């Protein structure tokens, strides 16, 4: 019974402690707990700095891919099916979720964008690849702002708007005036003539369409501070945030490297990052028939020793771009979608395919090139990191038959939401 009898001295000692705990409880609930968010708010620099700029968040925070792979999108039209891996993040974005915060910027938020690259010390960069036909519509401006703030300010990349312009100074100046003021400090311009002067001889540069890697090589040669760059074409879009997407790529590669096979010897960072599977091109691929590619095919040892991938978004290490330049010095400058993957294969560099979600209409595909089920891509090369079976096409492909409606129906319906997705291509002046 004595254990239930209160000791008056103990009560006197505990009373002040109880009062302090009560006060702490009230403060905690009145003023809230400190933030534990993994990603801080943009521009939260204190009273004298830019105002708080909250990064976008999806309004639906749960997994919308059902067990049968059908996606809940709140659409009344097309039923979309997940055909690749499920999203890393359980969320679904409306168009307003994704771009609402980028429609209007305060002057201080605009300064965050303008000064992203100034004295940064970053050793990684993102090159947004544009041409002279860029319309600079409002939807595209929102997209570019999101890229700079998320990949740049949040994820720690320099972001360069890398523009191919073949025009006189008067027309070039008029073109640059279309670029929003906050983005102009990020613009770098080059011409076909610049590329022809730069490329190591005896190699020749023909055009950007066939040799899209040459501007990247030139950029890396002229900017020795960078160890690694991503290139993003103007018709690539991301549903979800760039900072979390790029972080997921890094995290997954680190996981593969930690668990690599004995014969892989993966480098600290991948030399080539692709977002479509790396494979041998089909035997009737048109570029195998091009006379201009004969010397390249001979150098690589024939069709069986060529690798290719969709090149609208790639990651490039300095080791890779230097290797391409060495091939130039030998007189070769091959078609870009197989040049970099093949050089990586032959030079024993590390290639990493980051498999991301793909979505197809839940109906038979109009083209056999769009794979509704994972496709066997054969035995992987020793330093190629990718799954043996992957889906191809649909919302990330070289044609817009699925990507465009996936994007347009999302934009047109304010109630529709989309799970995270890297989308290509999104075409038309309205979106560009």
Distance between the termini: 81 Å
| SS-derived structural category | alpha/beta
Order of helices and strands: HEHHEHEHEHHEEHEHHEHHEEEEEHE
Strand order of the largest sheet: 4-3-2-5-8-7-9-12
Question: Rounded to an integer, what's the Rg over CA atoms?
Answer: 26 Å
Task: Please state the average pLDDT score.
Answer: 86
Largest sheet: 8 strands, mixed
Give a count of the beta strands, DSSP E runs of length 2 or more.
14
Helix content: 25-40%
Strand content: 5-15%
SS summary, helix count: 13
* Unreliable stretches covering 5 or more consecutive residues: 1-52
Label the overall shape. globular
List keywords for this structure.
single chain; 432 residues; alpha/beta; eight-stranded mixed beta sheet; two-stranded antiparallel ribbon; globular; disordered N terminus
Verbal overview:
There is one protein chain. This protein is α/β, with parallel strands linked by helices and 432 residues long. The chain is built from 13 helices and 14 strands. The chain has an eight-stranded mixed β-sheet. Helix 5 links the parallel strand 3 and strand 4. Helix 4 crosses helix 8, helix 7 packs across helix 11 and helix 11 packs across helix 12. The radius of gyration is 26 Å and the shape is globular. The N terminus is likely disordered. Pfam families: DUF3405. Keywords: Membrane, Transmembrane, Transmembrane helix.
């Amino acid at each position: 019974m004595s254990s239930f009898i209160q000791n008056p001295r103990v009560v006197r000692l505990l009373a002040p402690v109880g009062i302090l705990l009560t006060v702490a409880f009230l403060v905690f609930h009145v003023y809230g707990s400190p933030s534990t968010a993994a990603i801080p708010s943009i521009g939260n620099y204190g009273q004298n700095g830019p105002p708080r700029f909250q990064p976008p968040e999806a309004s639906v925070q749960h997994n919308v891919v059902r067990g049968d792979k059908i996606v809940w999108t709140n659409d009344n039209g097309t039923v979309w099916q997940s055909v690749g891996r499920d999203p890393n993040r359980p969320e679904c974005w409306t168009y307003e979720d994704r771009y609402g915060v980028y429609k209007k910027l305060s002057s201080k938020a605009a300064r965050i964008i303008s000064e992203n690259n100034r004295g940064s010390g970053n050793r990684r960069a993102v090159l947004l690849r544009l041409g002279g036909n860029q319309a600079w519509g409002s939807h595209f401006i929102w997209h570019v702002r999101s890229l700079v703030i998320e990949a740049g300010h949040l994820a720690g990349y320099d972001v360069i708007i890398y523009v191919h312009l073949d025009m006189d100074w008067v027309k070039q100046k008029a073109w640059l005036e279309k670029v929003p003021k906050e983005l102009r400090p990020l613009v770098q311009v080059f011409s076909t003539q610049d590329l022809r002067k730069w490329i190591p001889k005896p190699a020749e540069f023909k055009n950007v369409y066939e040799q899209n890697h040459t501007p990247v090589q030139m950029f890396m040669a002229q900017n020795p501070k960078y160890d690694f760059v991503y290139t993003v074409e103007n018709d690539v879009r991301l549903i979800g945030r760039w900072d979390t997407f790029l972080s997921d790529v890094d995290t997954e590669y680190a996981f593969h490297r930690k668990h690599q096979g004995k014969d892989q010897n993966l480098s600290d960072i991948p030399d080539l990052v692709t977002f479509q599977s790396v494979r041998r091109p089909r035997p009737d691929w048109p570029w195998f028939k091009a006379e201009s590619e004969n010397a390249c095919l001979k150098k690589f040892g024939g069709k069986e020793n060529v690798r290719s991938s969709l090149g609208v978004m790639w990651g490039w290490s300095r080791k890779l771009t230097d290797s391409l330049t060495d091939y130039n010095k030998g007189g070769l400058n091959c078609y870009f979608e197989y040049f970099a993957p093949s050089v990586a294969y032959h030079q024993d560099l590390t290639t990493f395919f980051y498999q991301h979600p793909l979505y197809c209409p839940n109906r038979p595909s109009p083209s056999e090139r769009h794979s509704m089920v994972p496709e066997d891509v054969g035995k992987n090369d020793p330093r190629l990191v990718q799954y043996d079976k992957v889906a191809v096409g649909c919302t990330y492909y070289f044609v817009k038959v699925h990507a465009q409606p996936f994007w347009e129906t999302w934009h047109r319906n304010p109630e529709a939401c989309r799970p995270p997705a890297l989308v290509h291509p999104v075409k038309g002046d309205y979106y560009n």
